[in-house]
Design a protein that fits this description.
The chain is an alpha/beta fold and 396 residues long. The chain has 16 helices and 13 strands.
């Protein structure tokens, strides 16, 4: 068998290609995203209209929000981003799926007493809660089993305020499947009709650690995001993994075979907008990720965030490209070629990015700049999900 690399001229947007994908999304391309967080929610909802084969590898290293409570209680990977992305890709058009979608998206109240929260969880486990009563068997029975595993394992003083029912179901399934995420993610995806594949890049219970330029070391995603604690005042210099949630105990994660295969078989790889370090680069840290990317000769595209990212402290797109490439080359032990890791930076034509000087600096790094309309005039600081989806699909 011979392997050939074929290049073609691309038009953005390529309406013929887009229309073809829209007619038969079940045959659409395998667009792979390295991402986490909510930045891709709108894009994911659009992508499912053109392809049911997109792949989303999300970070399991978050340490904030409701996921933090589950991580502390059960020493498990973060699952909030996993649930959020599956909800974005879920098929909510069918009646059965809508009931499950509503249940999985429900959060327990923030102002209820611990006893009231425990009673609501008990009602869910017994199938008496109005939300779960709308779900038909056998799906209702399967969901109740996972919730019962969570309820049985839940520590006595676990804080249920604002708990996502979807997260609790995932946590129960994780515990029910000998602390493996893949079986419950597969079941969860079938229950809500996920139009694509969503997985954590690895299933390890590890934490992010950054070293700042001023010498400070911070462990925990929540300490660098600027959401739950004060924002960073010094730029991030290094990023690594730690076994301990509060101080650095160096750790290594290894990409599993199934995820490696999906990376190597993707029709397009996207490094999408979102928190640059904790959502994007975090997914590139496990051993084997960079090599799998380099082994695939499909187009690779970086889409920088439009909004202010507290993790970047004003670093421009050219610096982001350099940091992204350095992270990937570190995974290859500084071997390989730029063109095997990143070929394009996709920029909104209507935004002032830095003009010809920026283009020149990016081209000097060996990467091509593509400018095309990606925002709507009424919302210039947010990507238009349709325009961005169509731009990416035009490159497949």
């Amino acid at each position: 068998m011979s392997t050939l690399i074929v290049s073609r001229a691309a038009t953005i947007p390529d309406q013929r290609r887009i229309n073809r994908y829209r007619r038969t999304p079940e045959l659409g391309p395998q667009v792979l995203f390295f991402s986490g967080g909510s930045a891709l929610h709108g894009l994911s909802q659009q992508i499912r209209l053109y392809t049911h084969n997109s792949v989303h590898l999300v970070t399991p290293f978050d340490s904030g929000g409701s996921s933090a409570k589950l991580r502390q209680a059960f020493a498990m990977p973060a699952i909030g981003d996993l649930r959020h992305r599956m909800m974005a890709l879920a098929d909510d058009s069918e009646i059965g799926h809508r009931a499950i979608y509503t249940l999985f998206s429900h959060r327990l109240p923030n102002d209820a007493s611990p006893a009231a929260l425990a009673d609501e969880l008990k009602a869910l486990c017994r199938g008496r809660h109005p939300l779960i009563a709308q779900v038909e068997n056998p799906m209702r029975r399967l969901i109740r089993i996972q919730l019962a595993f969570f309820q049985e394992a839940m520590p006595p003083h676990f804080d249920l305020r604002r708990a996502s029912i979807g997260n609790l179901i995932l946590a129960g399934g994780y515990l029910n499947n000998k602390e493996h995420l893949d079986p419950i993610v597969f079941l969860f995806s079938k229950l809500v009709g996920v139009r694509g594949t969503v997985r954590t890049v690895v299933n390890d219970h590890l934490h992010l650690c950054v070293g700042l330029e001023d010498g400070t070391q911070l462990v925990g995603q929540h300490r660098m995001s600027g959401k739950e604690l004060a924002p960073l005042t010094s730029p991030i210099q290094t990023l690594c993994l730690s076994q301990h949630p509060d101080h650095l105990v160096p750790a290594q994660a290894v990409l599993q075979k199934g995820n490696r295969r999906m990376i190597q078989e993707a029709d397009l790889i996207c490094y999408p907008p979102g928190s640059f370090y904790s959502s994007l680069l975090a997914n590139l840290l496990p051993v084997g990720v960079a090599q799998a990317i380099a082994n695939n000769r499909c187009p690779k595209v970086f889409v920088p965030s439009l909004g202010e990212d507290p993790e970047l402290l004003g670093r421009g797109v050219d610096k982001q490209v350099k940091i992204l490439l350095n992270t990937l080359f570190a995974g290859l032990k500084n071997e390989g070629k730029v063109e095997h890791l990143l070929q394009y930076v996709l920029l909104d034509r209507d935004r002032k990015w830095g003009g010809d000087k920026l283009h020149k600096r990016i081209r000097k790094a060996g990467v091509q700049v593509i400018e095309t309309p990606l925002t709507h005039p009424s919302r210039p600081h947010c990507y238009d999900p349709t325009l961005l989806a169509q731009a990416l699909l035009s490159l497949t």
